[in-house]
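re the bet — no i am not wrong, look at it urself. input seq straight from the record:
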Amino acid sequence: MTTEAVPPASSGAAHRDLAHHDNHGDQGSRGPDTDAAPTGTGRSGAGPSGRRALARRLRPHLAGVLTGVSLGLLGSLLALVQPLAAKRLVDELDGGRATAGWILLLSALVLLGAVLAAAGQYVLERTSEAVVHTTRRELTARLLRLRVPAVERAEPGDLISRVTSDTTVLRQTAVQPVASAVVCVPVLVGAVVLMGLLDLVLLGVTLGALGLVAVAVTVTAPRIGRAAGEAQEAVGAMGAALERVLGAFRTVKAAGAEREETARLHRTAADARRAGLRAAGWEAVSGTAGAVSVQIAFLLVLGVGGARVASGATDVSELVAFLLYLFSLAPRVHQLVDVVGQLQAGGAAALRVAEVERMPAERVDGPPLHALHALHALSPSAPAFAGARRPGPATVAFDRVGFAYRPGLPPAHREVSFTVPARGMTAFVGPSGAGKTTVFSLIERFHEPDSGRVLLDGRDVREWPPAELRAAIGYVEQDSPVLAGTLRDNLLLGAPAAAGARLGEVLRRARLEALVARLPQGLDTPVGHRGDRLSGGERQRIAIARALLRAPRLLLLDEATSQLDAANEAALRETVADAARRTTVLVVAHRLSTVAAADRIVVMEEGRVRAVGTHAELLSADALYRELAATQFLSAPPGPPS
């Protein structure tokens, strides 16, 4: 098998590509159906700040935040009244008067304040879940619309961590800290005003001691933000490293590389731990400064206040009320200190989410892809959403196409030109790296040419809406990927309306009837992660059946029978030949048995079209084809199965 895919970037490079997305991989390939926001991130100074990114996540849920804040604020305001009621209770006790009414009032204030605070907390928790749910829905929808070059530059494990880990951080740090800040500030201001009305001297002592908090927050806040961002990046790197190993689990086992790969994973875990410890350290400094300043304020107020009571400058009830306000102030100060750290972490998580939202994606207009497949299956001549859908097989043409996967890499295509008429089979052959698989990637608009045009039915593929373009195409990839789920799920992927007699016919044509009969639950049998409960040949036949169920106008087969035994390969060769009588078929193959039967053969070398002709014509006219036929292809087509 061959491939022209670019090797994946290293984890660190992938992080840099994602964080400072420059679209180099899309150079010359940004068609009208590409949706991309400005590049860069807040950490680089080019994108939105963490605060703005966090605000954007909260904006759709503003009603829930305001409701929760209002309830919490009412509960806190009732708490502010409690020290005044306590002062009056002390005065009544000192005067020997009845206190039952004041005790009942104080109890009612405490109970009502607790109920309002609990209700506000519940509303805020619901809003936090709504923020996470909305963010995950938006992210997953965005990820599946990303352009292929953007995904190829990123690490899948890191992208997964942004949907899972970073959104969990948002739940913990988005709504509650913002609500706490909104509630704490007016409560603190109200407490300070009331403390000033009671005793300005003691207020001055308190504010002087609390100045330590302001200094600590000013110093630690930016460091907490940087450390939190590094911690979340480290978690993403760990996810990428783990996905790398699990994605090639058998290879790691076969190579006996468990020890080395375990050490690599331990290094990423250690990096995450160090980053987390840095964030925790700065948060500890900030929190300790807040706690110490409150304790100092309490001791100073107790000492100075006691002296003022002894001197007659104030009375006991006022000192008691002031101390109660100071006690109510302490948790608010702790909350604000915690809020600063939480908002820094939330801002870092929101920025990582925003980075995904700025990756270039395809626009999705019109009906979903499976609806177009259903429409075409019912009536191939039915109009499509972007104009009348052409009936019958498609035509393909490359017009002086030039393409490189990334700047600085050798071109995969150099002035490639060829024409494929409607109906029939066209085979692409050539040495490894000649650009054969790239032909299919450009037709599918996974990538777009840097120069020249790729035409389907005479229309540049960049002018086709992606959904309409891909609805016309059935594509069997080199590695014939199978998704986790049931056999039925995989067969109906993208064409859920196909069922009944049509499904049975395709199963017969793809020689899958015996497999279905053998499986314990038939079509509803789970196939395992990436189809690991199936053989390579079974996965290829499933991929072929999936493509045939789409009733495509253009069928692309990339080494589609490379893992089949001779009997199944011969049978599926007949299936492909039958499909070629109804539609346009393009194949990349290394088997002479497949290539010799093609109506035309395109010979490629070093990204160029070297020759076009039939098997007989090329054997006599092209030296490279003769060499490939003699060495790389099978010596002769296999005979009929016995």
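see?? Residues 377 and 551 are 6 Å apart (CA to CA). told u. also The longest strand covers residues 396-403. so pay up
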